[in-house]
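Here's what a typical entry looks like (Proteolipid protein 2):
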Amino acid sequence: MADSERYSAPGCWTACTNYWRTRKGLLLFAEILFCLVILICFSASTSAYSSLSVIEMIIAAVLFVIYMCDWHTKIPFINWPWSDFFRALIAAILYLITSIVVLVERGGHSKIAAGVLGLMATILFGYDAYFTFPLRQQRHTAAPTDPTDGPV
């Protein structure tokens, strides 16, 4: 009995590829890639703004692993939808501010590329915040009503 359950359970690679195909998995992976590219651009020009990319990349990677391994269902004391929403919202705001500051400074080509990619990351994180907004995901059902012709 235990052997059949063990073989029917999905492995790590299957869980990874299954989560990879979801919208949230693609969003988190795209956020990791954007943060990495922006980090490289900031490192080429100046390291003053690179900490935002490092922190957001690490947080997105940790959340990717947590959601991929389905640990968010095993850790109930954290409200995952709200924490993910606030992470994405704060990242969008910080990337917007940082990108505007970088583009106003008028640095080299790598600084301009980092500013433009930061604006694109703002859109990506904003879409992630919109997609994960917990109150948007709740479905309301109609309340039961009494029949109009009286009690039955």
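Residues 19-133 form one domain.

More examples are in the samples folder.
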